[in-house]
Amino acid sequence: MKKEKKKRTGNALLRRQIPFHIMLLPGVIFTFIFSYIPMVGMKMAFEKFIPARGLFGDQEWIGLENFEYLFAMPGAMQALRNTVVIAFWKIVLGLVVPIVVAIMLNEVRSSKFRRTIQTVIYMPYFLSWIVFSGVLIDILSPSTGVVNQMLNAVGIKSIFFLGSNDYFQPTVIWTDVLKNFGFNSIVYLAAITGIDLSLYEAATMDGANRFQKIRYITLPGIRMIVILMTVLALGNVLNAGFDQIQNLMSPQVYETGDIVDTFIYRIGLIDAQYGPATAMGLLKSAVSFVFISTAYFIADKFFDYQIF
């Protein structure tokens, strides 16, 4: 009798879930077509690939020679280092700045002023990097850009932000933060609004000031969402932003601006070195997998947080 009841309950639950599985199906098909089927091409990393013979043609198997050639190429390791540095600072500032902004917005009492600020800081997120890069190139121009005009007005010489190896990396990092922090702050603002208001009332009764409430209530209250966003961000540690850097970079800043994705683009699509380009992409995916697995393990082990 118990087994029958359990079976009926399971069948009813399955019937209720069918519409959700149907809704999920297009995304699964899309992911399979564009993420899993292309993985067949990874075999090019171990072949002397000749396009005329086709992907499944009689290609010469050369083992790890593409990887050896890749590590000997000038600029490959520099691109890897640039990627790690740029991605690291993007992840750190991409977490810290939205959290600070969300807390500050939460402390604003005027809803009209808060909505105005939110609208202004969200706007850059909805611009593509092609459009936003054009705006940045104009704003940061050493001759006509408004930023350098302001610097000149206070006696500082013009800075070539996008053409100097000293300034390109910080410019890329901070412009990425500028574009995304407004939208990312929505997540933390939503987490803050989910905190029990009685905690703040009790803290007020105990004489806590605004900063003490933020430290002992707000920050612990959004701790789990911060961990989740960190784990997800670490999976992109080698994605330093191809669309941004490809639109802003020029040959004179390859030393500090060239990243793994732009390096793969150049040697693969421009120089037609498909084997080494695939090897670099495979290496990037392997390192990213290690990072996200480690981050997930730490979140589960030390913070008792599970994504799945």
TrEMBL record:
<keyword id="KW-0812">Transmembrane</keyword>
<feature type="domain" description="ABC transmembrane type-1">
    <location>
        <begin position="80"/>
        <end position="295"/>
    </location>
</feature>
<keyword id="KW-0472">Membrane</keyword>
<dbReference type="InterPro" id="IPR035906">
    <property type="entry name" value="MetI-like_sf"/>
</dbReference>
<keyword id="KW-0813">Transport</keyword>
<feature type="transmembrane region" description="Helical">
    <location>
        <begin position="87"/>
        <end position="108"/>
    </location>
</feature>
<feature type="transmembrane region" description="Helical">
    <location>
        <begin position="120"/>
        <end position="140"/>
    </location>
</feature>
<dbReference type="InterPro" id="IPR050809">
    <property type="entry name" value="UgpAE/MalFG_permease"/>
</dbReference>
<dbReference type="InterPro" id="IPR000515">
    <property type="entry name" value="MetI-like"/>
</dbReference>
<feature type="transmembrane region" description="Helical">
    <location>
        <begin position="279"/>
        <end position="299"/>
    </location>
</feature>
<dbReference type="Pfam" id="PF00528">
    <property type="entry name" value="BPD_transp_1"/>
</dbReference>
<feature type="transmembrane region" description="Helical">
    <location>
        <begin position="181"/>
        <end position="200"/>
    </location>
</feature>
<comment type="similarity">
    <text>Belongs to the binding-protein-dependent transport system permease family.</text>
</comment>
<dbReference type="GO" id="GO:0005886">
    <property type="term" value="C:plasma membrane"/>
</dbReference>
<protein>
    <submittedName>
        <fullName>ABC transporter permease subunit</fullName>
    </submittedName>
</protein>
<keyword id="KW-1003">Cell membrane</keyword>
<keyword id="KW-1133">Transmembrane helix</keyword>
<dbReference type="GO" id="GO:0055085">
    <property type="term" value="P:transmembrane transport"/>
</dbReference>
<feature type="transmembrane region" description="Helical">
    <location>
        <begin position="221"/>
        <end position="242"/>
    </location>
</feature>
<feature type="transmembrane region" description="Helical">
    <location>
        <begin position="20"/>
        <end position="39"/>
    </location>
</feature>
